[in-house]
Amino acid sequence: MKGKKDFARILIFPVCVLVCYGILCVIDPHKALMAIKTSGNLLLTVTLPLVLVFVIMLALNLFVKPAQIVGLFGKGANIKGIVLSLVAGIISMGPIYAWYPLLKNLREEGAGTGPIAIFLYSRAVKPFLLPVMIAYFGWVYVGILTVLTIFTSIAIGWFMSVLMKE
User: Fold this and answer.
1) Containing domain of residue 11, as a range?
2) Number of domains comprising the chain
3) What is the DSSP letter of 125?
């Protein structure tokens, strides 16, 4: 019985969206078509990062044991886990919400809130954007901003660990 309830709850949002599209289609078919095209383009944009994250999750589940995750990203993670979280955040690509399922999975496997917070915050540093930032703001500004962002991500991770009592 619970499985049917969960399935019904999952369908609420898509059904509401379809109803809204249906109403819009009756009121203004041209705008409805534009909205459907925009939604389709957004879906295509999001699909690749989501597939990438799910492939990473699959690989983690196949090759990485929970004890290894806890050892690197667990509560009280050592410097190796902090650096790994920092580097992973910096080199990660795609929209942040595409990473939420993987991060949730890591948390369920025993990863601490600190390393996850470091990963999330350090995503603000994007190496491929640094040349553009330097062109607009100069070396000194970008260097200071990047260093402060990295240190702040570590501080945020530490504060999250303290606030979450880990």
Assistant:
1) 1-63
2) 2
3) -
